[in-house]
User: Fold DnaA-like protein from Rhodobacter maris.
Amino acid sequence: MKKAVGRGGATRKYDLLTILGVHALSQGKTLQRQTLRLICLITARYNWQNDHLSVGQNEIARLWSVDTRTVKREMAAFRERGWLIEKRPAARGRVTVYGLGISRILEDTRASWEMVGPDLVERLDGPAPEVEERKVIPFPQVALPEGQGVWPRIARRLQEEDASIYRAWFAALEVEEMAEELWLRAPSAFHAAYVRTHHMSRLEAALALEAPGYGLRLT
Assistant:
């Protein structure tokens, strides 16, 4: 099974999530709970295009309604099982980056494929569909703020970590620096709420690295 992108990608995504769920339901409660947590993490934060899962432990704890100790234990279990593959270890200001161990997941769940039906077995056992040749239209590049101030440094770091998230959520923020505090103004209340809920940890980590001691406000 190739990466679940391109033509037929949506079907392959659903197939993978389906066999994870069906396999878990045939197992004990511990594996059922672990697999549900992984499915939740995949659907909420996994980038299928880049095979990229980069989420802080605090955010995972909120998603799972657990503490960070449980997060550490469960992520270690997924790594040991081979369902998650560590691509880049955590470093100061950056969270661990994982990939999905699709081949191992398929191997571990193979006995459950027939429970779904022969169509799924055929899709997963058969050759991957050819990807049609298509013209790639690149996203327009968003100019980074100029200068050597606090925000230009933070913006460069955020853009390097994930260009798509920077383009969608950080580039539109208006910034004012005053009295060792960074004031960020979003273009709408929804935009501010989304950044606060989903990406505040990225902002805070970058700020702590580029300007220790600075405060942060988002409106």
About this structure: The chain has two domains: 9-125, 150-218. The chain has a mean pLDDT of 84. The two ends are 44 Å apart (CA to CA). The longest helix spans residues 189-210.
